[in-house]
Write a structure and sequence with these properties.
506 residues, mainly beta, ten-stranded antiparallel sheet
Length: 506
């Protein structure tokens, strides 16, 4: 067994070194994360995100911090994305948060800077924009500049510059697109590809079509490209944009034809940077029209392997996984799409407000809501080499009737935001972490310092153990005789614990 290969497969090989490996012992030298607390001897540690080591461990699927009210206003309770809470990363542990606020009939999109430090979420001063539709699109060009799009009326899409200074938000320049039909003027997704070039998607009304186009934003001007159509079927309601590499993007859209089912379409587009325009697209339809796919998210394992998680607002069409491969020619140009996995269902609960948060390219946290009177759940997923998906048992994070879920990677794992149905749909947030990669610290270390972690073998010098009892990791990272999903080993004396199997062998 090559331990480094095993660790690398779990995304934790970088910066670490396996010590002399014996038949009964495996230890690993690692570096304590800069934002972690100090490591003490005998502390349980989990290894995630490359070179980081944490000073507490996850029991099963996660430690959930107490819910905190982030925004007292009520997000909109109409529309399929009820309130459209979104997060765009400004810098590590700092995001631009946006949501459509329906409090007292205001009906505007609010922007606010959200930060997470050691599991605590804090907000800057909210800024209310002029955007008056729950359908809006937003992305960042840099840590200090972004763009929001919304329906400007009279068949135009309005783009407004966002300016971020610390935790203060203002808006700057405004540009309206050439007149579209009213059925094209509701932006849904926005993606900054680089150099000020944005890709946008739009729809309009309940039964309209799906469009996409470009907008080049420079220091002096806005230039709108000619729009294209990614679906001419009526009822296009959802779409998402995802960057695959420096030239390619994925556009995932769904439509509901006269209320009968919902179907996916995946489009891969390519940018010609010499012209700042889209020059090549290939597309593929996924699923049948009877599955009611109303919510989805996409994760690129790389620029050719894409994982899609989808769900529905209706029972029987719960959280479902898909894997596709983008085929390319010798120049790297996308030529076709192959469906590897089309509809592996993991739960019968309704699944919507779906968000994917990658821990590594193949280890994912997936968040979703389960319907009216339902719950917000988190799943840990592994993308297997054969193209299938394996899920951990879910953990319940809270209750919510809304389909609004926003999530993003943070230093403490990932943050999750949603409207709490038990408290007037106020937007609440928590920090959650998913991993089963666990060992025991054999040395003490401060943040940023090396620590020796035992993955298999004897831990000596502990106190208070009960001989012959099996020990587990509890939700706070402590040794416990109470059974949990993270089994560690057996106490052979009051001071010694034997870990018989490393985490990948359990």
């Amino acid at each position: 067994m090559d331990v480094m290969q095993v660790l690398g497969a779990h995304g934790i090989g970088a910066g670490g070194k396996v010590n002399a490996e014996k038949a009964d012992e495996v230890t690993f030298n690692y570096t304590v994360a800069a934002n972690s607390g100090p490591i003490n001897y005998g502390t349980l540690v989990d290894l995630v995100n490359g070179s980081q080591v944490r000073d507490s461990v996850i029991s099963g699927n996660g430690i959930v911090t107490p819910l905190a009210v982030l925004i007292g206003q009520t997000p909109a309770q109409t529309g399929r994305d009820n309130g459209q809470i979104r997060l765009k990363e400004i810098s590590p542990n700092k995001w631009l948060m946006s949501f459509y606020d329906a409090t007292a009939g205001v009906g505007k999109v609010t922007l606010v800077v959200l930060q997470e430090v050691n599991g605590v979420l804090t907000l800057g001063t909210p800024f209310v924009t002029a955007a008056s539709s729950y359908r809006y699109a937003i992305d960042l060009l840099s840590p200090t500049q972004g763009l929001i799009m919304y329906n400007g009326g009279s068949g135009v899409i309005r783009a407004v510059e966002i300016l971020i200074n610390g935790t203060t938000i203002t808006t700057g320049r405004t540009s309206d697109s050439p007149a579209q039909s009213n059925n094209q003027a509701d932006p849904v997704a926005l993606l900054h590809m680089g150099n000020g070039l944005f890709i946008w998607t739009s729809t309009g009304g309940t039964y309209s079509f799906g469009y996409y186009g470009t907008l080049l934003m420079t220091d002096t001007s806005f230039t709108w490209g000619s729009p294209g159509t990614f679906s001419s079927e009526q009822g296009t309601t959802q779409s998402g944009l995802y960057k695959l590499n420096s030239t390619d993007f994925a556009l995932l859209g769904s439509w509901n034809v006269n209320g009968v089912g919902e179907t996916f379409r995946l489009l891969i587009g390519q940018i010609d940077w010499s012209q700042n325009k889209i020059i090549n697209t290939v597309q593929k339809d996924l699923l049948s029209a009877a599955l009611n796919r109303m919510s989805f998210d996409l994760h690129p394992v790389d620029d050719s392997t894409l994982v899609i998680m989808s769900g529905s607002m209706y029972g029987g069409n719960g959280l479902t996984g898909h894997v596709v491969t983008v085929n390319r020619d010798s120049t790297g140009k996308a030529t076709s799409i192959t469906v590897v996995l089309n509809g592996q269902q993991f739960t019968g609960d309704p699944g919507y407000g779906i968000r994917i948060v990658p821990y590594t390219s193949t280890r994912l946290a997936v968040l979703c809501a389960t319907g009216t009177g339902g719950q917000i759940k988190a799943y840990g997923f592994n993308v297997k080499s054969d193209g299938t998906l394996a899920a951990d048992a879910p953990v319940v994070l809270g209750a919510s009737d809304t389909s609004t879920v926003a999530a993003a990677k943070s230093g403490s794992g990932h943050i999750v935001l949603f409207g709490d149905s038990a408290d007037s749909y106020k937007i609440k947030g928590l920090v959650h972490r998913i991993t089963n990669v666990v060992g025991v610290a054999m040395t003490a270390a401060a943040p940023g310092q090396p620590v020796k972690v035992l993955l298999r073998g004897f831990v000596k010098g502990l106190t208070g153990l009960l001989p012959n009892r099996t020990y587990y990791a509890d939700a706070n990272g402590n040794l416990s005789t109470t059974a949990s999903a993270t089994k560690l080993g057996v106490a052979i004396s009051a001071t010694e614990l034997l870990i018989k199997k490393a985490f990948w062998e359990r």
